[in-house]
Amino acid sequence: MKKFAKELTALQDQLFEMGHLAESMVAMATSQLLSKSAGDVFDAVMGRERRLDKMQLDIDHEAVRMLTVYGPVATDLRYLLTVMHVNSALERMGDQAVNLCEDLQLLTARPDAVPKPVLGQMARIVNEMVRGALDAVVGKNARIAEHVMTRDDLVDSMNDQVVRELLSDEVVREVLRGPKDIAGALAQILVARSMERIGDQAVNICEDVIYMVKGADVRHAEEMAEMAAEEATLAANPSSE
User: Fold this and answer.
1) Phi and psi at residue 134, in whole multiples of 5°?
2) pTM attached to this predicted model
């Protein structure tokens, strides 16, 4: 199995390289919210997105080949499955970085639209989540993965805050009364949504790391716990149906 171990290490190195590439794309896209001196990075991000797509195909093909040729079991099998899942999440993360650049172009086209401070806060947290998720992959560290996942609710709440503030009942009434332009507000909502989805991909990666390390599937854990609690309540009080 020395050949398998050597090929697995090479595949792992490819995944780490892809992770660094995706992280750089997110950092470049969010830099426009974090630094006033940041210029338009759309072309640079797009160039990296093409590389990211190619890397996804190469890694997928190699992982499938190794599954077919070696038929790994237990830990090795979980690792190869994790590589394939993380590979997919990184590609989607790159797609969202491109979307974020497009959303920011819409925003900068509205000189009267001042980005809300919460967007900068979201950008910092999302960058931290992406960096933490990749650290968890490299170190095969479930503890880091679990910490990153705790940040997801905060990003979700910030996304909700942006929508509430920019599409309040008062704003909607003003739009209905007259020619109020809300293009800038909608652009900010799109920016927040793209960052929220980047955070979701970081969480997906962390879930895969936990599966790889512990063999535990924690996807939809909260929803499953809620369903179990509801079923237990119904079982204890059948007359309430």
Assistant:
1) -70, -35
2) 0.86
